[in-house]
Structure formats: C-alpha cells, structure tokens
C-alpha cells in the first residue's frame, strides 16, 4: 500500500431517475420529477495512500450536426477513450516526478478497455514506474 498509486475512472449522469419508490398502502407511487437536459461526464482520478495526486474532469463535446467531416474523417467520440487516459497518465507521471520518493511506485488500474493500450505500459516503464 505504501508504494501504490490507484488510477480509476467513473461516469456521472445528472439525468438519473428512480425506478422504484414507496407509497402509503393503497396509493400508487407517483413522484413529479424535474427533468434537466444534462450531459454525462467522466471523472479520472489518481490517489496513493498518502496523497491525492491528480483528478480530472472530462466534459462531453458540444453537440454537432450529423455531417461528414472534411476528408472523409470520422466524427470524434463522445466518451472517454484510450487517448484521454494516456493524456491523464502523462499528467499523473509528471506530478509524481516532482517527488523523488515516488520513483518506482506501482500504478494500479483495472482492466477497462481504455487502459489496455500498449502505449500506457511503455510510457509508465520509460518514466521509471511499474504498471499493474
């Protein structure tokens, strides 16, 4: 635990609604819900046993009309992808490099698809850290 840095992501959606509820006996469970059009966001975080290293908020892209992009390129994705995670880990490693006592620490991540890129493991090893 003393030489581990935990990295994870979490999604947050402000449009969640209750699927069930309680009501007095003999009455239907009806609730007025105020709806708001809000986009989902992703939160990326890195924490060790001693300190919060980095936290990042990934806001969704602004909506665009469905049109083909110039040159036949595909539209950008809305969610968190490997490139977002690579950029976040670069920021985490840069922050950890400021503290010599963190050299050789283990970066611990789950097996989400955004972590499986080879570039993440290579980048971590090149900076002198271990990746699990």
Key features?
132 residues, alpha/beta, Nucleotidyltransferase, domain 5, 5-stranded mixed beta sheet, 5 strands, 19% helix, 22% strand, elongated, nucleic acid binding, Tc1-like_DDE_dom, RNaseH_sf
Quick recap:
The protein has 132 residues and is α/β, with parallel strands linked by helices. Helix content is 19%, strand content 22%. Strand 4, helix 2 (118-126) and strand 5 (130-131) form a beta-alpha-beta unit.
Characterize the structure shown.
- It comes from Parasitella parasitica.
- Residues 5-50 form the Tc1-like transposase DDE domain.
- There is one protein chain.
- By secondary structure, the protein is of the alpha/beta class.
- Helix content is 19%, strand content 22%.
- It is built from 2 helices and 5 strands, in the order βββαβαβ.
- It has a 5-stranded mixed beta sheet with strand order 3-2-1-4-5.
- The longest helix has 16 residues, at 82-97.
- The radius of gyration is 20 Å and the shape is elongated.
- The protein starts with a strand and ends with a strand.
């Amino acid at each position: 635990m003393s030489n581990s840095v935990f990295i994870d992501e979490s999604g947050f959606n402000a449009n969640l609604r209750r699927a069930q509820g309680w009501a007095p006996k003999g009455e239907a469970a009806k609730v007025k819900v105020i709806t708001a059009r809000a986009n989902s966001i992703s939160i990326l975080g890195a924490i060790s046993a001693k300190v919060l290293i980095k936290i990042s908020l990934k806001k969704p892209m602004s909506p665009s009309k469905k049109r083909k992009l110039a040159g036949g390129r595909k539209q950008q994705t809305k969610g968190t992808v490997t490139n977002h995670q690579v950029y976040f880990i670069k920021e985490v490693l840069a922050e950890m490099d400021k503290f010599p006592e963190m050299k050789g620490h283990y970066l611990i991540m789950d097996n989400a698809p955004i972590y499986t890129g080879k570039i993440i493991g290579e980048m971590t090893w090149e900076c002198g850290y271990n990746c699990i």
